[in-house]
């Protein structure tokens, strides 16, 4: 990515969990937003998933590379058509993110082959959960666009305290791996209306990049 516009030093939130404020510059954010809009309105579509107990997720999700539904990945969309490929415009982001995280990608690492794009309107949130449907233990790379959110990063044992609350703003990078890879985390709320005016997004987008690995 280009030089951070309003970058600040990385903050280690928990061992293996690093927040890099302002990692994406304005141009990179605008370009990424355009792509996200195209993916969500294209064949990949966007869905409010229904959870096993019947609840509907308030977040609307677009899956690329592999299709996620609670709680597994599939190569096919629900209508039986193949999932859209992992997007070329995202191809270099995992490498750059892992450099910023301080754990450079190696040739032996499984590829980052999943991109999940989450859209939060003013009322959306995400409960505390673990990202544990991937087989590889590669760090999860998370990018935020639009409204600021309250991101809660906890521990591997419980959904509850101890946790650390972090404000994720437009352009921020958050990476969690190593001892934090299976930590519970969630988004209790966003802060509607806080997106930078120049971005032209009402709401919040979060893009996570992940490696599925082999079962
Ligand atoms: O929206 C976020 O910042 C977190 C999203 C998340 O935890 C997920 O997609 O698994
Ligand atoms: Fe997650």
Tell me what you see in this structure.
With 215 residues, this protein is mainly beta. It has one domain: Jelly Rolls (Sandwich), CATH 2.60.120. The protein is built from 2 helices and 13 strands. The chain has helices spanning 26-41, 93-101; strands spanning 11-14, 17-20, 60-64, 67-69, 72-74, 114-120, 126-129, 140-146, 148-153, 164-168, 173-176, 185-191, 204-210. The strands form 3 sheets. It has a 7-stranded antiparallel β-sheet with strand order 1-2-11-8-13-6-3, with helices on one face. The model is unreliable at 1-5 (pLDDT under 50). Bound molecules: 2-oxoglutaric acid and fe (ii) ion. The site of fe (ii) ion has 3 residues, from loops.
Structural class: mainly beta
What is the count of structural domains?
1
Tally of DSSP β-strands: 13
* CATH fold call: Jelly Rolls
Name the hetero compounds present. Answer: 2-oxoglutaric acid, fe (ii) ion
The ordered H/E elements are EEHEEEHEEEEEEEE
CATH class division: Mainly Beta
Q: Share of helix among residues?
A: 10-25%
Task: Give a quick rundown of the structure.
By secondary structure, the chain is mostly beta strands. Helices cover 12% and strands 31% of the residues.
Topology readout:
Layout: E1 11-14, E2 17-20, H1 26-41, E3 60-64, E4 67-69, E5 72-74, H2 93-101, E6 114-120, E7 126-129, E8 140-146, E9 148-153, E10 164-168, E11 173-176, E12 185-191, E13 204-210
Antiparallel strand pairs: 1-2, 2-11, 3-6, 4-5, 6-13, 7-12, 8-11, 8-13, 9-10, 9-12
The structure holds 2-oxoglutaric acid and fe (ii) ion (FE2).
Pfam family, one: 2OG-FeII_Oxy_2
Domain Fe2OG dioxygenase: 111-213
Protein name: Alpha-ketoglutarate-dependent dioxygenase AlkB
């Amino acid at each position: 990515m280009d030089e951070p516009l309003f970058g600040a030093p990385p903050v280690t939130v928990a061992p293996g969990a690093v927040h890099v404020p302002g990692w994406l510059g304005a141009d990179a954010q605008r370009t990424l937003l355009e792509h996200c809009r195209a993916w969500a309105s294209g064949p990949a579509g966007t869905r409010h998933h229904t959870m096993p107990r019947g609840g509907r997720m308030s977040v609307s999700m677009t899956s690329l590379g592999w299709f996620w539904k609670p709680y597994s990945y599939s190569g096919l969309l629900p209508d039986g058509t193949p999932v859209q490929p992992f997007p070329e415009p995202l191809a270099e982001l995992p490498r750059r993110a892992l450099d910023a995280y301080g754990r450079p990608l190696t040739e032996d690492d499984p590829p980052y082959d999943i991109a999940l794009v989450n859209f939060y309107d003013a009322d959306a949130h995400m409960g505390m959960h673990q990202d544990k449907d991937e087989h590889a233990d590669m760090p999860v790379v998370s990018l935020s666009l639009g409204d600021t959110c309250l991101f809660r990063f906890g521990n591997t044992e419980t959904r509850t305290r101890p946790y650390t609350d972090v404000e994720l703003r437009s352009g921020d990078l958050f990476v969690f791996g190593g001892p934090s890879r299976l930590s519970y985390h969630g988004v209790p709320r966003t802060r509607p209306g806080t997106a930078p005016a120049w971005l032209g997004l009402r709401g919040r987008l979060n893009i996570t990049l992940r490696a599925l690995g082999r079962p």
